Amino acid sequence: MSTTTANDRDTRVTAEKIRGSGRMKDGRKRSPVSMVVMFLLALLWTVPTIGLLVTSLRTRDAAATSGWWEALWAGGWTTENYSRVFEQADMGNAFINGVLVAVPATIIPIMFAAFAAYAFTFMDFRGKDVLFISIVAVMVVPIQVAFAPLLDIFGPRGLDIAGQYLAVWVLHTGFGMPLCIYVLRNYMASLPFSVVESARIDGCSNFQIFWKLIAPMAMPAMAAFATLQFLWVWNDLLIAKLFLSNENTTVIVKLQQLLGTQGQGAELLTAGAFISMVLPMLVFFTLQNLLVRGMTSGAVKG
Amino acid sequence: MTSSHSQPPLSDDTTVVEADPRADDAPPEATVPDDQGLQPVKLLIGVVGVAFTLWAMLNLFLAFAYYPEWFFNSKILMGALGLVVGVGGAAVLFYFINVAVEALPRRLEHGLIPYAFLLPGFSLIGLMLLYPTLQTIHYSFANADSTAYVGLQNYVDLFGSGAFWSAVINNLLWIAIVPALTVAIGVVVAVLADKLSAGGEKWAKSFIFLPMAISFVAASAIWLTQVYAYQAPGRPQTGMLNAILTAFGGQPQNWLSIDTGRLNSLLLMVILVWLQTGLAMVLLSAAIKGVPEDTIEAARIDGATEWQIFWKVVIPQIKGTIITVFITVLILVMKVFDIVYVLTNGRANTDVIANQFFNQLFARGQAGLASALVVILLIAVIPVLIYQVKQFREQEAMR
Amino acid sequence: MASSRLKRGLVTTTSVAVALTLSGCLQNPDAGAGAGGFGADTEPEEGDGVVTIMGAFGGSEEELFNASLADFEAESGIDVQYVSDQDFTTNILIRVDAGDPPDIGLFPQPGGVMQMAQAGNIVPIDQFLDYDALNASLVNGFLDSANYRGRVYAAPMRMAVKSIVWYPKKAYEEGGWNTEPASLAELDEVAEQIKSDTDAAPWCIGWESAQATGWVGTDWVEEYMLRLHGPDVYDDWVAHRIPFNDERVVQAIEAYGELANEEGNVLGGATGILSTPFGEAMTPAFQEDPDCYLMRQGNFATGFFPEDVQANLDEEVGIYVFPPAEDGYDGQPILGGGDLAAAFTYDTDTIEVMEFLTSPEFGGPWAEGGGWLSPHTTFDASLYVDETTRQIAEMAYNADVFRFDASDVMPKEVGSDSFWKGMVAFQSGEATAQEVADDIENSWPDTGDAATETGSGR
């Protein structure tokens, strides 16, 4: 809250001050206030993660007897946590599993949801409100209530696919769908309706309109949701543990399996948390390019 | 009339029978110039295409499970095929659905196509979320192992328990504080990042986003051990809060047990805000990128200050996304449980409804009470639903 | 208009009705009970060469467990696949409900075994193991913990001993305090001496254990229950034949309170107890100048000691048994726990693995690796990695009575929930011992008493 008010003052000052000051390569004005505020926010947001990084590089004894910020002079550095994670768990296999689970489970729901969101945004039909309400409503239901019936369907008494990637793909597709439809429908609602209207008059089918017009225009929202869904699937513990067999299981499950009966080995989890963060951050870096100005703004202005 | 069915496949069948005679002798509707009436061949192609696609996808997927040796037991091959078939299959499926529906007379086509587009997504939601939800509502009127009805007893028990009301108060606090704070910081970050150079923006956003890459459980552990940790007075403090406090001569505090002013709940909320600002930023940033540059330029030429541009030009155009993010975080907050579970498990007045649900279901095996708690969450989300529908209608009226 | 609204209403109602019909069935209360055909006369099926085991321990314990099975696997040709799950207690239930149980479950809590036995999901061990031989070599009374309605459904694979007092050897011996206190009163004397001789607190106590905070407190109360009132009252208490708010239970909680809440007796006082992770409780005892000296904790505590201490355990750490009360039960009780192996399938391979897991021959490599105790008195003690471990094993083998951790046997509503939370409320001063006991008594489930009635038998 206080950030907003501070911003209030700053931006006004900036507007006057920066006139005539330096410009960036793309011609926009440089904004020192933005730079300073963003730097501070980024720092604040990163401090706990830095703490985690430092702790993951310290011995258990050192972490228990001095704060991580004291590591510079108190010492206790080691890379043993990392080496032990790789020794004790088959991380290579777990990473492959994680990717093989997460990529389809990220893209498939977007595929289905985009069509549904298109229908919700650009078409009129009976029961639209009821269906949309049910989508928002089920989002609030804890997914644990679905485990028992779904294990029946996927387990040995049903399709017998529990333990396979397939089960988890389907599950994440289903559980991610409401939020995906919701996000995409709200984004599509901000797109100009006139484009769709004129395309219809030109005789385009809905399928064509969707593929040629709406899908490209909704790319930022899809990329944004893809980022979130990927993270969610990657970091999921519950579904992976119940629906994936041990040789198909993901990084997060493998990490949890490093713990002993009374939680011995918790210091390995600091290193593990870092190892498991690498890939999501790479994904974010990559998908970020889809979120950048210019790529879509032309289409949106239409 | 057909469009009043909620199940398109059924409608397909009935339509074929009913529409046949019309295709033979009735001329196309005059009001729709390019309506070709029923095109049986196209319809057949569509229906067969849908059936074949579904059959092929299903069997291929099952083959991964049943006959891994067909794929040389290669996980990567199966994963790649899964992706290609999942996405490509979905596209082909929608294509054939579209073909089938287009083959129908115009009026029917218009009525059916929305359901056709919704069907695949909704059948999954129906199976995996709607059905368990209805079952949960049903079980909320039954006993601990869902074997006999107990009427409203679960609700009576809940409303009579002090722990429940304490959790409700906490939930209300979470709802009042976390979504608003997350969205506010998210907007600030998204707007400010937009003003940085491309490289600067990328890095700054990555740092804000960083916590998103950490699982809830790991994040909770980080805050517990790095920030809120307590050591006896006189011993070196390992938590940052206590280290700062003792550096200024204070006594170390066991932060998470201080429920004066629900301070401990507030400290838990900080973690969620820290985690979710990344989400708000990603979605809001995408929206801000969608604000047409010319509207901003126009305002600038009119002499508006940056501040005025922000409030009068940018905010109205991203209002939809702000609401989306707000409600997404709101719903997340309503079912927040990991953070509370790991850090306090509801001790010292920090309990929330979702954590009670988890404890009732798994620690105590009280399926009835747990289901009733879910129903309470469902009731609590009704205002959001009403608002959504109102907004929905407004948006459509504006067209 | 009206008709379209009516139609819409009808559609909605119909679809809701359809969905309700689908979800409108209660669970079959008899489902699973007695199913599986584990009758006494049933012949075991032929095994398929693979036996899956699910347990709660991972990391280095998992490695040593697998190492302990390596020779057996090579000899028998059976492939044993172990999966660890930190949420074993919850997830085993879900897996069983889905019809997808492992072949063998390693239960950290007898409560879970009872639940499975009641539902008829596991095979009684007398059906395929030599019960008498087992009973003869196991620590006295261990098999009772898996007794459901007169039949035993699981056998221990590992033992934990909880009644141990740990101290930093050098500093403690320099202080010249009693290393063999024979009664709780003598132990109190030691504490008083430490307080007067040093600036430090005598006791190191830490309870914090994330969502499970409070279990250390329940162990303390169990120790006092055993010592003040003896194993028979203890069994009555566990099986709910006496109410939880019986005055003897309140007395046991208060006995712990006297030790913990006395000014200067515990490092950090009540706040310190509640917010110190149980694994780090003793860390201040191993400094040059200890901040506290004594910790009562199970044998697994060694895994949390600083690395230099672990590396040199016999020199750095001393132990003695948490002594009996002079005016209470006449004899040395030991509180403990363990992992109980139970079979979900009844085939020749599973039986072979069960036989080996529960035999005194199992666990050599694990004993050499450390952190494991055999529940068999006949186990070759020379295999244990250090003198300290041998001493602990001796404690259990020589005990007059061994009792399983009560909170693991009680219904999980109590044992893994209200008992934990009640102890936290007591320690934080929010509630008196009587109030805590009343609250826990109220949380005792009405049904399910039958499951535990015979739980701890004798």
Layout: helices, strands, pairs:
The complex is a heterotrimer of chains A (302), B (399) and C (458).
Chain A: H1 2-17, H2 32-56, H3 60-65, H4 71-74, H5 80-88, H6 91-122, H7 128-139, H8 144-154, H9 165-188, H10 193-201, H11 206-217, H12 219-235, H13 238-243, H14 251-256, H15 266-288, H16 297-301
Helix pairs in contact in A: 2-15, 5-15, 6-9, 6-12, 7-9, 9-12, 10-11, 12-15
Chain B: H1 8-25, H2 40-66, H3 75-102, H4 106-139, H5 153-159, H6 162-194, H7 198-209, H8 216-227, H9 240-247, H10 263-289, H11 293-301, H12 306-334, H13 338-343, H14 353-363, H15 367-380, H16 382-397
Helix pairs in contact in B: 2-3, 3-4, 4-15, 5-15, 6-7, 6-10, 6-12, 10-12, 11-12, 14-15
Chain C: H1 2-23, E1 50-55, H2 59-76, E2 79-84, H3 88-97, E3 104-107, H4 110-119, H5 131-137, E4 147-148, E5 151-152, E6 155-161, E7 164-168, H6 169-175, H7 184-197, E8 201-203, H8 215-238, H9 247-261, H10 269-275, E9 292-296, H11 307-311, H12 313-316, E10 317-321, E11 333-343, H13 348-357, H14 364-369, H15 387-398, E12 401-404, H16 406-409, H17 412-427, H18 433-443, H19 449-453
Parallel strand pairs in C: 1-2, 1-3, 8-9, 11-12
Antiparallel strand pairs in C: 3-11, 4-5, 6-11, 7-9, 7-10
Report on the architecture of this protein:
The complex is a heterotrimer of chains A (302), B (399) and C (458). Chain A has helices at 2-17, 32-56, 60-65, 71-74, 80-88, 91-122, 128-139, 144-154, 165-188, 193-201, 206-217, 219-235, 238-243, 251-256, 266-288, 297-301. With 302 residues, chain A is mainly α. The radius of gyration of chain A is 24 Å and the shape is flat. Chain B has two domains: 2-139; 154-217 and 277-397, MetI-like (MetI-like fold), CATH 1.10.3720. Helices cover 73% and strands 0% of the residues of chain B. The longest helix of chain B has 34 residues, at 106-139. Chain C has helices at residues 2-23, 59-76, 88-97, 110-119, 131-137, 169-175, 184-197, 215-238, 247-261, 269-275, 307-311, 313-316, 348-357, 364-369, 387-398, 406-409, 412-427, 433-443, 449-453; strands at residues 50-55, 79-84, 104-107, 147-148, 151-152, 155-161, 164-168, 201-203, 292-296, 317-321, 333-343, 401-404. Chain C is an alpha/beta fold and 458 residues long. The chains are: A mainly alpha (302), B mainly alpha (399), C alpha/beta (458). The interface between A and B is large, with 138 and 130 residues. Chain B: Residues 1-34 are annotated as: Disordered. Chain B: The chain crosses the membrane at residues 43-64, 76-100, 112-131, 172-194, 206-230, 266-288, 309-334, 367-389.
